[in-house]
């Protein structure tokens, strides 16, 4: 990469050559993000996407100036530590780190919020590489993208999806300005960013510096402290990421056999049937909308465990000839990063008529794909504590069943958006909206916890509706199958076990992803739905007017 002036050894290389190496060999994108994703008009056609960068600093558009300045001060301290650990002269490190912070700040100011770009119709703009070169000439787009997406064959007429053209124009002007006056500082900015990206693969001094920064930033942004994360967990995650083709087949064979699959499908069928019954009785839906909604549920595809593509025998036998594992942990990680990127590109180039899974088989996150009208439940979700064929039905319905119902309700998100259901009783729908928002706003928040009810509303509605549908399905099952297994060490009825099971899987510790989550904080995901369900208060004998037995409730689903 040519080194940097911080250590006194610097070869002034071509800027685009360095950028090309960072993108293709190190997976580091200092000025913008590039990735392969579905074409906006044709979901099964992959296209290169260019988006805003992901900043390492937790900045927000509406951040208080005082907090904004404090965040940058902490980040400057962190960059100074990195430069010093890499053998830099302290005075030079301070100067170059300050300029790097300045570049980040200016790039951040170029960003436009997602909502604004969507409202202006500028979230998905199709341009060719040639056109992009005219708009943002500082970047050699063809050579950088070609190196990153080998073995794809790109040309100047190649179409791309750009998510923020104005940002790229401003970014290009800043780079040109820096190349004219402060080329060495631009180089240092890119190298410091690379070191930040690679810090998990560097020694404990770099990781400790990162841990202290994260702790300080969470304090400044009033987030609860993160629990210590054992190193083995990181190692397991990285191994799963780099060797997924082989591990997917092994995991599913071990953890999701035919009996588990069959039991999970029976649970899903019961949940789906309960949803269809519930749709027929919604007061804000007219008969035509109810029929349309039932048809959508009937046409839905469901995939469980792992995708058929992931379980192909040839993938399980993959030899990973391009991965070089040696005595250097950093070099081993970089080799894995390059191999993974090549496999991703290769998989996008192959015909893939079915739905392309967004999660690994061992993940616990289910999801609904609008474009393919398919709901996905990975094998990781259909394991204890969420699900097991030998568990009491109350446990399975309360945990996995409520999650299945939640995902099914994603099918109808559009109906809940303003103007999304012209044939509905919009007055009744609006009343239910406001009722649910007031209901969630009434709960006290733990210290250092915040949430945006506009951002989380749709997920809150699915949480409340999902629990109600799972309870309805379970109650129907109890009527048909007399005699329910209970848990001998717990003095709880089957219905109490159902609610306990739901709360058990929703309650968790905070995680770094929470700031980007569209779900409410964990305690609200427990209290909101339970307090919206009259049966919970009845079975647990909650006093009238208590937190989980309010005097009035909302019904959206």
TrEMBL record:
| Record carries keyword Coiled coil | no
| The keyword Metal-binding is assigned to this record | yes
Q: Where is the Peptidase M13 N-terminal domain?
A: 7-305
The Gene Ontology biological process annotation of the record reads:
proteolysis
Which segments does the entry list as coiled coil? none
InterPro entries in the record: MetalloPept_cat_dom_sf, Peptidase_M13, Peptidase_M13_C, Peptidase_M13_dom_2, Peptidase_M13_N
The record's keywords, sorted A to Z, are: Hydrolase, Metal-binding, Metalloprotease, Protease, Zinc
Q: Which PROSITE patterns match?
A: NEPRILYSIN
> What is this protein called in UniProt?
Kell blood group glycoprotein
Its taxonomic placement starts with: Eukaryota, Metazoa, Chordata, Craniata, Vertebrata
